[in-house]
Design goal:
Length: 197
């Protein structure tokens, strides 16, 4: 085993006010020395005050819009849920993309919680609760309930069955859903879930 050879100390430069009048020229001047160490420290002369380089009259920027729902304390829970859902679909060879309903992204985490609190997809459908859930999701137009149901069935129902089968999800009443032919059986998945409960 070779002995560890410590790298050379980083050089420290202390330019005079005259040398540092043009900082970029000074950096170019010390470049041949610094290139050997890869790093250096420059202590500017005392009293050196860099000029403000932004023209406040012409400087413009576009602020980032951050919806208020992203500021919630529950954001981490939602992100963990979406991460698990994305990984689930990635294992299926499908690129998951959050659908838009009524010109806004569908809150998949909230929808999943609402449906599973009723007892899951099958129980929500049996009780005809999709219109009620649509209103609870904040959609004024009741006709979008069909789209919400279709997106749940397409993206969340297989995930619900997977989590339920692996003991990561207890549906209302403790009912564990069984796969029947034509329901998109997920029996090929590994029994150990890589997703957070």
């Amino acid at each position: 085993m070779e002995e560890f050879i410590p790298p050379p100390e980083a050089p420290v430069f202390q330019p005079t006010p005259e040398e540092f009048r043009d900082p970029l020229a000074y950096i170019a001047k010390i470049h041949p020395v610094v290139v050997n160490t890869g790093i250096c420290k420059i202590r500017p002369p005392s009293g050196w005050n860099p000029p403000f380089s932004v023209d406040v009259d012409s400087f413009r920027f576009t602020p980032r819009v951050q919806p208020l729902n992203e500021l919630e304390a529950k954001t981490r829970v939602k992100l963990n849920f979406l991460d698990g859902l994305s990984k689930f679909w990635e294992l299926q060879g499908v690129v998951f993309k959050i659908p838009n309903i009524d010109r806004r992204p569908l809150d998949m985490c909230r929808l999943f919680k609402l449906v599973t609190s009723v007892g899951g997809f099958e129980e929500t459908t049996r009780q005809r609760k999709w219109t009620q859930l649509t209103k609870e999701m904040g959609y004024e137009n009741p006709t979008v309930s069909g789209s919400i149901r279709a997106n749940y069935e397409r993206y969340l129902y297989p995930y619900e069955k997977f989590l339920s089968r692996n003991g990561k999800l207890k549906l209302k009443g403790g009912a564990q859903k069984s796969d029947s032919p034509g329901n998109g059986s997920l029996s090929s998945l590994s029994p150990s879930s890589p997703f957070p409960p």
